[in-house]
Each structure stands twice: as structure tokens, then as C-alpha cells.
Amino acid sequence: MACNMHGVGSSLGNYIKDMAQHLSPPSATHPAWQPCGAHHVAVYGTLRAGGVNDIARLRGGIVRTGTTTLNGTLHDMGWYPGLTLEGDQPVLAEVYPLDDALEQVMDGIEGIWPHDVGEYAKRVLTRPVTHMDGSVQPLDVLVYEALPAFVQNAPVIHAGDWIAWYAAQGSPHSDEPFALRTGNSAAP
């Protein structure tokens, strides 16, 4: 796989090696990777600042564009959340710039590519983003939405900030971030 990994944090090295071992040439069962077309991503769980998969560990020097709210239903998947976009619970999300290399790595973390494990789907939404300077601008953002069948038996989280909610539960994260998604939701 040839992709520009400029600025990707060194803590990602083992993840990339694992991902490369699982890659196979595009075929009917493993299609070629496709970008979503958005230039920003909205993250609401472990990829947020301070999360076990903090996006800054994926892209050194990345600067948060701002924040937004995503409306839906937040689910407790154990060590990470799943958000369905059905429902009216406002959920805090951080917005970051997105390029193809970062999106491809995130697709691996979310179990969408190179093998879709059936947990998440990529959605592009237009959301009002509050920039760091306080200004508000509508932006197209990529959101990784949990599929309803995946979260159907998961407890609903009645909180809009997953990082704060998880910290209040007193559950420690593993210190091994960026595990490949294999369909098993156990901690990495």
C-alpha cells in the first residue's frame, strides 16, 4: 500500500504494520479504498483529544478546527462508543482537517477497510462548526456512524460528552491504542 503518511505519529507504527499484513489486492471481496470527499472529520469517542486513540497520535501537529454537535443516540460498546444518527441526543464532537491518508488509517481503526467488519458506516454531514476563534461555519464532516444492528443490544448513554462520561465510570483504557477492528469489540 502506498500512501503519504506525512506527519503520522510514531506511535502508529505497529498499527500500520498490522494493517499492512492484513491488506490484499482489491477484489470483489476486498474493494479498493475510496475517500469520502469531505475535508473534515467529526470525532466523538476515542479519537477525541485525550482519548486512547487521540487523533493527534495519528497525525502529529494536527490542529482542531473546532467543535460541533451530532444528533443521535450514543451507545456504550465497552471501551469505546457507537453513535447512531437516529435520535435527538446532542453529542459533542471535535472537528479536525482530513486528508486521504488520515481517512484511510481511520477507516482501518473503525473496521471499514480493508475488511468491513460491519460495525460502522461512513457518513458525510453538513454541520455548523464552532471554530476555535468562536466563529461558526457550516462544514461537510465525515462521521463514523455505528450501524443499528451492531448497537441494538448495547446500553444507551444518556450523556452528550463520551470522554467525560467514560472518565466518570472509572474504567481505565488499555495502553495499546489503534488495534485493528476484527469484529471483536474487546479492548485492544
Automatic annotation (TrEMBL):
InterPro entries, from UniProt?
AIG2-like_dom, GGCT-like, GGCT-like_sf
Question: Gamma-glutamylcyclotransferase AIG2-like domain: which residues?
Answer: 41-163
Protein name (Swiss-Prot/TrEMBL): Gamma-glutamylcyclotransferase AIG2-like domain-containing protein
